[in-house]
Amino acid sequence: MRTRSIGLSLMAVLALVASACSGGSTPSPATSAAASVATSTLKIGVVTDVGTVDDKNFNQFSYEGAVAGATDIGAAAPKVVVPKASTEYATDINGFVSQGYNIIVTVGFNLTNDTIAAAKANPKIWFIGVDQAPLCITATGDPDTTKTPKCAGDPAKLLPKFVAIKYQEDQAGYLAGIVAAGASKTGHIGAIGGINLIPAVVRYIQGFVLGAKSVNPNIVVDTGYVSTSDFGKAFNDPATGKTFASQFISQKGDDVMFQVAGKTGNGILQAACAAGIVGIGVDVDQYLSLSAATDKSYGCIVTSAEKHLSNSVESTIKAISAGTAAGGNVTLDAKSNGIGLAPFTPASAVSADIQAKVTAALAAMQAGTLTTCPATCGQP
Predict the structure, then answer these.
(1) Where are the alpha helices (DSSP H) in the chain?
(2) CATH superfamily of 169-306+350-367
(3) Cα 319 to Cα 317: distance, rounded to the nearest angstrom
(4) Which run of H or E residues covers position 281?
(5) Spacing of C-alpha 50 from chain mean position
(6) Which of 129, 130, 258, 341 is 20 to 30 Å from the Cα of 312, by its Cα?
(7) CATH code at 44-167+309-332
């Protein structure tokens, strides 16, 4: 039986939303649809990052949030487009624009600049950028891509229908680090990210290191990245992830592995389980999303550092429909219940002492009294 940890059953609640729906079981993207008879004329489109929509992670859960939001407001089921390469981001976004879509959800940091450009060019369309805040724009509302960006523009004023969502990944990573340190028998743990060019990935790992050291100051945390330039290998290549992690674990001798690499990370978790060590997932409850209870290649997952992706997208769509949404940067953190840990699997895998440390850390985060990221937060 899986037991949800005290204080960790979290729902992402945007400050701009009056209420949010509780989560339920994870539907399959292939079968998801708005269940109710359509009563809203809003058309919702989703552009994911490269990969697949059924990645059991970031793309899938963001998309499912759009499906849930459409159901809530009685809109038609969202259409989803999965780019084959980053060169298709702008084309796919503008495809929804040309078809008269009212809400366009773009998934992931990599789509930020193309979403900014589309939001400026189409001020009557709502855009939801998942993992895209804080926005850096010029005084005229364009992406600030200069070598030393000034970020002179105010997104809330210049892009009033662009809701840019950011999650404080370092907090979720910190909680995972506490669990990892408690689970380690050797004092040697590891974290593998997809690529260090994405601040969110780096923040997860930086928080993980600090969380582990809060339990054991002498613990060794080995970190690595699958690629330095290839986003496909970094986030959409489980085979490469498994090979990379297998070699990493063998060389470093880690007995706990935290993955921050999207679908590539599924292979990292398989390598961890094959090596007989503890695995920690990312973004969503990967014990559930990867069916670890029945698929033993993922059976070593004890928890996951979560962003509550589905609920944040769902809640934003509801706010837009209700007329209560406001554009600008939105940060979801422990205080707003936007991050957390998945249930421990099993609960006995995590000692009462470590569970207490997790609960105390979460409370300190909510109170704003705990530092979970270094001064170089998000920088490799």
Answers:
(1) 58-73, 89-98, 112-121, 155-158, 169-183, 199-215, 231-235, 238-252, 264-274, 286-289, 309-322, 352-367
(2) Response regulator (3.40.50.2300)
(3) 5
(4) strand 278-283
(5) 15
(6) 258
(7) 3.40.50.2300
pLDDT value of residue 375? 96
The reply to whether 44-167+309-332 and 169-306+350-367 are identical in fold is yes
Count the neighbouring beta carbons within 10 Å of the beta carbon of residue 376: 9
Helical (H) or strand (E) element with 191: strand 188-193
Domain locations in the chain? 44-167+309-332, 169-306+350-367
Enumerate residues 6+ apart whose C-beta is below 8 A from 363: 7
Close Cβ partners of 221 (under 8 Å, ≥ 6 residues apart)? 177, 189, 190, 191, 208, 209, 212, 213
pLDDT at position 310 is 95
| Positions in the chain short of pLDDT 50 | 1-36
Alpha-carbon separation of residue 104 from 89, 141, 172, 173, 191 (angstroms)? 12, 18, 27, 29, 33
Q: What was the pLDDT predicted at 247? A: 98
